[in-house]
Each structure stands twice: as C-alpha cells, then as structure tokens.
Amino acid sequence: MQSSANSLFLKVFSACRRIGFCSVVLVTVASCAWLRSEPELSAPDIGGFAVKGRMAVRQGAEGFSANFQWQHSGTRDEIDLWGPIGQGHSRLVGDSGLVTVYTAKGEVYRERDADVAMQRWLGFTLPIAALTHWIRGEPAPWLAVLASRSDDAGDLAMLEQLAWRLEFSGYRDDSDARRLPGRIIAIRGDVKVTLIPSEWSFGAPRVI
C-alpha cells in the first residue's frame, strides 16, 4: 500500500481539501478540474445493472469521499467518480480484460487489469468481479466464504472473502422485490471503503 502512486493520491487529496472540496478522481487522483456534470443513470443491458450513490475511502489517517456511478454488463464495467457539482470527474472502463482510464485532466491510460489500474492510480484496489456480487448483498459464488452471518430478516449482514471483511445494513426492497443493502462497508488491512447505493436499475434477466 505504500507505493509512489499512493503517496501521490494522499498528497493530491490534501491539496483538494485545502481549497474547500474533495474533488475525487478515479485512477489518477491528479486533478481538481471540472470536466462535466453528473451522469444520468441509464438503462443497463440484459443481465446487467447500473447503480449510483456515494462512497468514502479511508486508508490509515487519510481519506476521501465521492459520488459514484457503476454500470455493469457481462464483461464490461464503466465506473465514474466525481466530486461536488461534477468536479474532478474521471472514468474507468473495463472490457474483456482491457481497462481504459479517462482522467479529470483529459488523459487516457490503458491497463490489462482493473485491480492493477486501481492500485497504480488510487493506491488501493477493490476486486471488481467480486464487488459485482458484494454490492448486491451476496457472496461472490466462485470464492471461498471464510465467514458469514445473516441478520434476523435473513439478509446477509457479514461476509469474509478474499481477506476482505464486509458488513451489510440498511436493506430495502426495490421495485422488483429485490433485497438490496443500503450500506456496504469493506475492510482489509488499513483500507476501509464505504458504499452507499441510492439508485439502482436492472436489465432484463438472461434467458437460459
């Protein structure tokens, strides 16, 4: 976690905070620039989902918060992060193993792995493939479950996978009676990520 990229992230975060806002960038953490306004939540493809909300990240004594929007479909993921009123807007697009990063400064970077891209430009990483399940309040089915616990309503309350400990709360039903958590806290080492999904859209189910 003590990479040069992480040092850059913490330094830039402090500079943004001094001018009165936390203008977060995904993957470059290099600018407090204004790029564009908040994106609209669009309809996902068949079998996919789109989710919008807030996130907070803390690593040791440092941290930041941001708005996020994530669109997932098949092998493709698009993740946007931006600060207040659209500031510092950046995007990560992953498709079939190739990850493209569009920074708040208008720069474009390409990586072969989403985890490598997040680690290099943010200084920490979340397992995106597993997160597609975690954010919906369910274990990643191909990973070993080290520990889990459900609440009185039968919803998943705690999960340990991939050395991450996840806590889920605030469940509610969506328009199709899906039970979705309103808060997910993921902790690994000195990294703590809090996700607060507020808007969801699901594509039609795949026909098998």
Helix content: 10-25%
Radius of gyration: 17 Å
Architecture per CATH nomenclature, i.e. the level-2 architecture: Clam
Net shape: globular
Q: Which percent range describes the beta-strand content? A: 35-45%
Fold blueprint:
Blueprint (H helix, E strand, L loop, with lengths): L3 H15 L30 E11 L2 E12 L2 E7 L7 E6 L2 E5 L5 E4 L2 H9 L5 H7 L12 E4 L5 E6 L2 E6 L2 E2 L5 E2 L2 E6 L2 E12 L6
Antiparallel strand pairs: 1-2, 1-13, 2-3, 3-4, 4-5, 5-6, 7-8, 8-9, 9-12, 10-11, 12-13
Helix pairs in contact: 1-2
Account of the 3D structure:
Helix content is 15%, strand content 40%. With 208 residues, it is mainly beta. The chain has a single domain, classed as Clam (outer membrane lipoprotein receptor (LolB), chain A). The strands form two sheets. Strands 6-5-4-3-2-1-13-12-9-8-7 form an eleven-stranded antiparallel sheet, covered by helices on one side. A two-stranded antiparallel sheet has the order 10-11. A hairpin with a 7-residue loop joins strand 3 and strand 4. The longest helix is centred in the first third of the chain and has 15 residues, at 4-18. Residues 1-35 have low confidence and may be disordered.
Offer a few descriptive terms:
3 helices, 40% strand, 13 strands, mainly beta, globular, outer membrane lipoprotein receptor (LolB), chain A, eleven-stranded antiparallel β-sheet, 208 residues, single chain
TL;DR?
The chain has 208 residues and is mainly β. Helix content is 15%, strand content 40%.
